[in-house]
Amino acid sequence: MSAMHIDPDFLIKLIGLSNVLEQQINLDHGLRELATMTAHLLQVNNCSIMLIQEDEEVAAPVLRVYAYYGDLPAVAQQESVRLHQGIAGRVASSGQPLLVEDVTHSEFAAVARRSDTANPSLIAVPIWLSNRVIGVINVNNPSDNRCFRQTDLNLLQVFARFVGKSIHVVQLQNLLNSRFLQHAIAVDSRSSGAASPPAINPDPAKLAKIVAKTVYRELTDAGFSPPDILRTATEVIHLFNQSLEKHKRRAEREESR
């Protein structure tokens, strides 16, 4: 198969890739644009971005699809992948990229999702934020039917670095825009005896614990009893579920356009 043709405006488009998320208020929408742009730059028909999140049911981190370009079965959109499992799970747990020239004759033949195309090659690379993996980018089905080579892998790793940095910037911007989170971090810092507030950490799991402790402490100090605090938390969860449902319906409408 022929090698991928490099667009002469590649560097300009790469800079544009790095600015996509920073220009978006909504992270999900920005990730969808990144998946689309990555697919166009790499000349592939399918691209998906998976991020790691904690799954309370299995009490372990899992990968879930947050954005994709091209055809992706509905079951795959809702599926969670444990680390160490499958192609994306191995990449996320090891932190090492994976290029498979022919998945049908590889150790992943039984777990790989196959599209209608006859092209058997795929690439999956980790998305890094500082020194930890926060997700995986997967691409397959090259539009020119070439088999992926090292050049494609190198380019996708560059894209993944830009995606990780962009996600970091968006999370920091959202934190800086939230006075409550700033207050929660400051309160947590004082309670732990730190001389000054720590650097903002965009890890959702850590932030959730800080916010939960701060809310509990503030409600307790305000005279709320444990049953009152429980009712308050239940109402917050109810409002959150309503917001998620509205967001899901809006996303479905945008996808159907």
TrEMBL record:
The organism of origin for this protein: Candidatus Contendobacter odensis Run_B_J11
Record domain GAF: where: 26-177
SUPFAM superfamilies, alphabetized: GAF domain-like (SSF55781)
Name used for this protein in its record: GAF sensor protein
